[in-house]
Amino acid sequence: MLARAVDEGVAGDWKLVAVYDSKEEAARALISKLSKQKPRIASSLEDLLAEGPDLVVEAASQEAVREYAEAVLSSGADLVVLSVGALADESLLSRLLRAARSSGRRIYVPSGAIAGLDGVRASSIVGVKSVVLETRKPPKSLGVEREGLLFEGPASEAVRLYPFNVNVAASLMLAAGVEPLVRLIADSALKRNVHEIRLESEASKITIRVENVPHPSNPKTSYLAALSAIALLKKLSEHIWVGT
């Protein structure tokens, strides 16, 4: 969806120069869906970076972030991280921030499947006292059969155990400046994925509830998460930014 949005100009004035996937057939399948731009297929990350991109978008996995992100930043490209759960690793985040500072580049994290990160980030200025993320999903989308509480604990552990289900916990942690408590619940009564955030700071108490519709062409992904990435690219190409 993101590549098609760039192709159609919905994501702003960007040009797709190259696509890289460890499985070349996946890259070919993606390019075949484009109608206006025909980026070439890179044979490796080094091959992709040889194109001199201004911005690289990671849309693969936490492992891809661990393996490639530092090289992307060191090459002189900005980086959009969609598998943000990887950034809950303090050691990795520290290395990536050093690489970004050294090269004068930036790391961008879309809001993803949640909302309200502008308010969370603003609250962090005076200090967040507590933040809780409760995520409820149908058992099938979690790959389980039983219902009830599957996990309760720190965000860094949640994103390690459930890398495809609570990536947003890492986004929340980065915005809040403190580690959220995460509860992951399987609920067969739901048809949508529900994220509820409860935050308390010196400035305010914030409650955010998001009920996500699955993406029409990829039910494993929330529609809002895909739109969030498109909105970020659009924002980066505009001359006015709305929101913190």
Q: Describe it for me?
A:
The chain is an alpha/beta fold. Helices cover 36% and strands 22% of the residues. The protein has ten helices and ten strands. It has helices spanning 2-7, 24-32, 45-49, 62-74, 90-103, 117-123, 139-142, 155-161, 168-176, 223-236, and strands spanning 18-19, 40-41, 55-58, 78-81, 107-108, 128-137, 148-154, 181-186, 193-201, 205-212. The strands form three sheets. It has a five-stranded mixed β-sheet with strand order 7-8-6-9-10. α4 (62-74) packs parallel to α5 and α6 (117-123) runs parallel beside α9 (168-176).
- The general outline is globular
Could you report the average pLDDT, rounded to the nearest whole number? Answer: 96
Residue share in helices? 25-40%
> Compute the gyration radius: what is it?
18 Å
The proportion of strand residues reads 15-25%
Strand arrangement within the widest β-sheet reads 7-8-6-9-10
| Strand-pairing-aware structural class | alpha/beta
**Oligomeric state of the chains?**
single chain
Order of helices and strands: HEHEHEHEHEHEHEHHEEEH
- Number of extended strands: 10
Our measurement of the CA-to-CA distance between the termini, rounded to an integer number of angstroms, reads 26 Å
User: Could you list the spans in which at least 5 consecutive residues all have pLDDT below 50?
Assistant: none
- The DSSP helix count reads 10
Largest beta sheet, briefly? 5 strands, mixed
